[in-house]
Amino acid sequence: MSAGVPREFGELIARLKDGGAINCRDCSDFLMAYLDKELDPQVCARFEQHLTRCSSCHNYVETYRQTVRLAQEACCPKANPHLGKMPPELVAAILASLGRAP
Ligand SMILES: [Zn+2]
To answer: DSSP secondary structure string, 13-62?
Structure first.
């Protein structure tokens, strides 16, 4: 599989390069390619332009980024040196809130 924007985006990219507007649906379609930095620079600029104007898409992208980061931290102890070093009192508090004695 070669890097780049999937074929199904071809029509959309052509439309955007033609001066067409990007909408919220386009944003969700492009999100993965955008975060992987696979978007055509021209399309990427249009995408970011939409994000500056559309708070819901902006929030969507931020939430997605944060989720990816948290997932990486959770899966990679090197990215999160505090993992496995939870203070015993915190563990006790969590267990207590679950209704179990430590
Ligand atoms: Zn939007």
So the answer is: HHHHHTTPPP-HHHHHHHHHHHHTT-S-HHHHHHHHHHHHH-HHHHHHHH
Expressed in angstroms and rounded, the spacing between residue 73 Cα and the centre of ligand 1 is 28
Is the CB of residue 60 less than 8 Å from the CB of residue 31? Answer: yes
Q: How far is the CA of 30 from the centre of ligand 1 (A)?
A: 11
Per-residue model confidence as pLDDT tens digits over 46-58: 889 999 999 999 9
Contact criterion met (CB below 8 Å) for 68 and 74: no
**70 C-alpha to center of ligand 1: Å?**
24
CA of 69 to the centre of ligand 1 (A): 22
